[in-house]
Amino acid sequence: MGGGPRTFPGGLNKWQWKRLHEKKARDKEKRLLDQEKQLYQARIRSQIRSKLTTSDEQSYRSHEQQQPNYGPVSPQDHIKSLADRFMKEGAEDLWNQEDGPINTPQHNQHRSGISEPIDLRKLIPQNCSFQKARHFCTNVRNDVAENWRTEIPKFSNSWSRQNNLLMFGWRMFNKNENRNVNNLNSLLNFRYYSMDTRKGNRSRKLGFTRNENSSDEDTEDDEDEEEEEGRSGGSVKMMSSAALGKYDMKTKKRVPLKFVENEDDLSLHVEAIRKEVRERSKQKSESEEEGEKESILSSKRFDECDVSPLTVKALTAAGYVQMTKVQEATLSACLEGMDALVKARTGTGKSAAFLLPAIETVLKASNRKSAQRVPPIDVLILCPTRELASQIAAEANVLLKYHESIGVQTLVGGTRFKEDQKRLESNPCQIIVATPGRLLDHIENKSGFSTRLMGLKMLILDEADHLLDLGFRKDIEKLVDCLPRKRQSLLFSATVPKEVRRVSQLVLKREHGYVDTVGLGLETNPKVKQFYLVAPHEQHFQLVHHLLTSHISEVPDYKVIVFCTTAMMTSLMFSLFREMKMNVREIHSRKPQLYRTRISDEFKEIKRVILITSDVSARGMNYPDVTLVIQIGIPVDREQYIHRLGRTGREGKEGEGILLLAPWEQYFLDDIKDLPMENWPVPHLDPRAKVKIEEAIGKMDASVKEAAYHAWLGYYNSVREIGRDKTTLVELANQFSESIGLQKPPSLFRRTALKMGLKDIPGIRIRK
């Protein structure tokens, strides 16, 4: 085991103790580096200030004559090297070409024009008014000007008469229009200043580049001078400066308070720009679609492709003459017998895209084989939900209107197993539309159903991504093992994640085709307006009621779908709005299949109705003329949000979608930030409606509320971003129980609490 203590002060083990000291060492090193940085910056400031008053004879030393020196550099050399970083390639110095040529000075050509160092701090006394400071600068200006005339005898007096000089705020006026810029440049070797040149008999000044005054009076005075200079018509040309010359100076003026108060929030500007971009893209898409009757339709007709005349007749009778773009892209490959993986959005006619090849496959197979007592199954279609299976079977019957010898059957859960067997025996069919679970039940029953599948010619997986999301991967693998290898397989999916590609390798042939009808465009219908609304969770019932009543008053022929997170939440919401005398229907997984089928068919046919449903209606269901989709709570993922929204705006029509979130669900907006989402402001809620909602909740059965609480807790416990903090999750769940009229949170079974990781969490009640 080794010697040494097993624990350290504070109950730390040796690794925690080691990391603690490593962290302390890093913090100490960081503090030392900060101190060195501050010392270095202070040294740079002092060197810059001292350079303003010292001779710059060494600044003209040629860079080519310097020998490589890898030892410590002097402060002046260090400053020079830092300044040279800002020089452009090929430039001699940081002067502009418009400033005139640079004359290389001779040794001892001139001396510093300032005989004594000037303390800059004295120029701006703290307790001095602006007029006193100006008077002080005027006196110093005259003294320095006199020093320039007396201490520089090598320069002619004509030079001083021909040039006006202003250094550190001191001016000398000339009387002649002629100038000698070269002599001025050779005399003034200051890298940290700029010069203004003017035409005509004007004064010139040399001052700090971009040095703004800190006082308001000085700023106003400078602005007045600039206005006078602008009216004179002369162009101002500034000499360049080294960056370190303004190292210790303010880089921009202070903004007056009145402008700061009136300044708008940057986020509002960003939101306005985004809204403008969305409007432009929408206008562009609308202008591109003006020439077409429908955006999803193509110019190709069904009678132009290799489809049975009876099928074309049925399509014409149903009102389908032109193909959609998805059908045009996929039919040719599917009719040729190729395996294909097709990526297509919902509501684009993809059901007919695989039903037409399926019917042609059955027709070809019936011509080859002899009459049998029980015909084999030629086409098998797998769907994730019962509603989607029933819908596909109904669409197939429309296409088989004039094909009397071809039959379609559905095998889904929620019905009696023996009734399915009797139906299969009494009404033989060639096309089976099934869900994976019930289909496996028939295969494993050894009733002869697996024998009929040995003659299968085509396998179709619709909504393949949803099949995998529901956990049907193992069932699909078992089904594929029971099917013949010599077959055609088609996979249709709205998204193609990694799991779908893995299943495609299992189901499809190696040389299968890939058809992408979505491309790089928007994953949602551009004609569907998308909004999100963030509000406290206890206001969601009242907000949904407000959104529904507002939409009903605005749209006479309304048809609304409200998506809830779980089946029990769907039942709770349905019971609430039924108590409030609204025309609502409900569909979720806890309802029997016959009831779900009846409600689904009823919702397709009528208008002015509200369907409250779970995710069983999120994919594949073709409900026509849906005007509004409301999603309460975060969906499972981004794809689920897109599929829910796809229930509206089908067949190129317009629609509207609203996502209702709690503040702690707002992180989901990052997953859909690339979609054209707009913020829906929280509306003013009527207090009378709140009272009615509370009364309706009070009349509801307590068992429905308890089941909704358990379902709510289980759903959000499975959401990683929320469920990982169990304490916060329980607090939110208890707030939800109060909002639905429960005096105290319902209790959980001990086994359920253990599975959810909620045992010993404050606020969880365990059932004894």
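the 2nd protein, sequnce then structure:
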Amino acid sequence: MLMVVVGKSNGIASPVQPFTTYKHSIELQENVADLWWTVDADAQEIIFELHVKTTGWIALGISPGADIGTGWVDQAGNVHFQDRHAFNFSRPVIDNTTQDWFHLQGREQNGWTCIQFKRLLDTCDSMDVRIRSGTNIVIFAYGLVDPDLSRQDGDISYHDDRRGTRMIPLQSYGNPPSEDKFAGLDSFEFRLNNYRVPSTETTYHCKHKALIDPANRDIVHHQLVYECDPAAIFDDANLPEGLCDEINPQIELCTTNIASIWAVGGDYVCFFNAKKNNAHIEFE
């Protein structure tokens, strides 16, 4: 049995206090962008508050589409907010159908721009993206300067690499537990180095490498990782351990499905679920 603990943190970097209390919060980009939000199921609307470390414009959107709320705070402290829509990789244009993103309040403080805004979960606007149950693709971006509306070309500047994407279940988000919850536990770190991500919408790629202490290489011949039946129940404080033949009655529900195998001479083990009902394992 393998127990994996993945640490999660919703650490917030913004030094500015949010305008109100929210149900959820997440750090979109470390030390750069933070997001708070609350879903009002009765009103079928969602209230966001976005903080970004910039004195320029900031934007939050729902993709694909993409439906974007863009705003900034000018030198006089006035908040400007626009409902925009982006086609592919072009500059977002102002929504010419209906205004569905509404700013509530905003401010600039300590080098951060902070704006509170809201929209309906489903605006019924062809240029908007519905916030569905389940996972939503949330995008954000920001610029270094405010648009100059007095100029004909005073639109928002290009964000360059000042942008990001997060997959967030906005309507059913579970706030990560405190890091204290994992104190005293061992952790596993998973990395996929220099992996070229395919252009397909969804890709499943897995691999693992057996880490054998050099001092023990001459006594380790092979390793098997089994999947346990969901009906198996164990006491985490007293897991079965010993010679397999002797503890077989205790682990019987974990001896039928082999997840992976490593043997002497093997290196990385890669799994490619290329097609449904046509999965295979490749040993390198």
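Helices lie at 244-251. Residues 244-251 form the longest helix (8 residues).
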